[in-house]
Design goal:
alpha/beta, Rossmann fold, 2 domains
């Protein structure tokens, strides 16, 4: 079998979708040494991907801007894919090229429908691109992979014809480096107990309400427990530091920026709990990452988040500052319930395994190839 993969996301720093693609590709290369894999990228791949005998990488030789990448994906990418005589092409993030050979099966992964259900939290240009290209990919695909049942339901609600070709495949729990001691966090000004936020800093993550809820807590409680925000800049939160000052939280909030895997593992290991009150998520990978360290969670009662969090934490209304504040107070003050959730977190995290994710994804590849062959015969 010859499998082509749109690897453009591996040209960026590793966050959620990038992590998803990187982990599955690594597992596929290891589990299926007799399968040939072809990665297509518009720029050199930055993600730490091991070389393998069954892997070929095709990258553009010139630097491309955002518009250039969109044009590359609908021209050069399918040209390479057709030339490599693929059996199947996989788009790990909402996209499929239109000009693939009719003989090539197509699978697309849909992580979320933010553009439809929380479009106000997106950059206008990005929302427009998703609104146009995601429905196109769903139409073209022989099979659709959804990160969660919540996302699968959203896909079917928006595109009823996709019901018979949509399947749920959960993400996995990454094997992080061994965490360092708590003292290693002193470089970030983390010098006392803390709860943690992890994610790209953008409106959908609901950081403004999280900070406002934290500011309503008793000053003694805030003084004893920091809020640590770890993540690279996205958009719409350029004034996050200003908001911290406005709320008089300079002594209680630490902004680490984007951190490497060793530091992230250390942050998860020593956190009292992870706080992720997002307005919308297709999965919520930081929940699984935190739970794999036995760290309980506070998250939203909407979209996929209850499905992933299970019974390992508290659910709050992400639009209600009082609800978030009440949840924070309970998690910070009630050691017994936090300990209970910590035990459940470890057990819940076992549900998520990247090898299982890769095997289930490969099974869907075979289904897609069969569906494509059947479609070609009917013609």
């Amino acid at each position: 079998m010859r499998v082509g993969i749109d690897a453009r996301m591996l040209c960026r720093s590793v966050t959620g979708i990038e992590r998803y693609a990187l982990e599955i590709i690594g597992q596929l290369l290891r589990l299926y040494p007799d399968v040939e894999f072809f990665l297509y990228a518009p720029l050199p791949i930055r993600a730490p991907l091991d070389s393998a005998a069954n892997l070929a990488v095709r990258t553009a030789s010139v630097k491309l801007g955002s518009l250039g990448v969109l044009l590359w994906a609908q021209s050069i990418l399918p040209f390479w894919a057709n030339k490599d005589r693929l059996d199947i092409f996989w788009g790990p993030a909402h996209r499929l090229p239109r000009l693939l050979s009719g003989k090539i099966a197509r699978v697309v992964t849909i992580h979320d429908l933010v553009w439809k259900y929380a479009g106000e939290t997106m950059r206008p240009a990005h929302r427009l691109v998703e609104k146009v290209l995601m429905p196109d990919a769903i139409r073209l695909a022989d099979r659709i992979v959804a990160d969660s049942q919540s996302t699968a339901d959203a896909v079917v609600e928006a595109f009823p014809y996709a019901k018979t070709k949509t399947q749920v495949v959960y993400l996995g729990a990454t094997q992080f480096p061994t965490p360092k001691a708590f003292d290693s966090l002193l470089d970030f000004g983390i010098n006392r107990p803390y709860f943690l936020f992890v994610g790209t800093l953008e409106p959908r993550k609901n950081l403004r309400r999280l900070l406002q809820a934290y500011a309503t807590l008793d000053s003694i409680l805030r003084g004893s427990n920091l809020l640590v925000i770890a993540g690279g800049k996205g958009w719409g939160n350029q004034n996050l530091a200003s908001l911290v000052r406005e709320l008089n939280l300079e002594d209680s909030v630490r902004l680490t920026g984007y951190v490497n895997e060793e530091t992230l593992a250390t942050l998860y290991q020593h956190a009292l709990f992870l706080s992720m009150p997002s307005l919308y998520e297709g999965f919520g990978l930081p929940l699984v990452e935190a739970m794999s360290f036995g760290t309980p969670v506070l998250t939203s009662s909407c979209s996929s988040l209850p499905e992933v969090a299970g019974d390992a934490g508290i659910l709050v209304d992400p639009y209600n500052i009082s609800s978030i504040s009440s949840g924070l107070q309970q998690m910070l003050q009630d050691d017994a319930i936090r300990s209970k959730f910590a035990l459940q977190a470890k057990a819940n995290a076992v549900r998520f395994n990247w090898e299982k994710t890769a095997r289930e994804t490969m099974g869907i590849f075979y289904e897609a190839i069969h569906a494509r062959k059947t479609k070609c015969k009917e013609k």
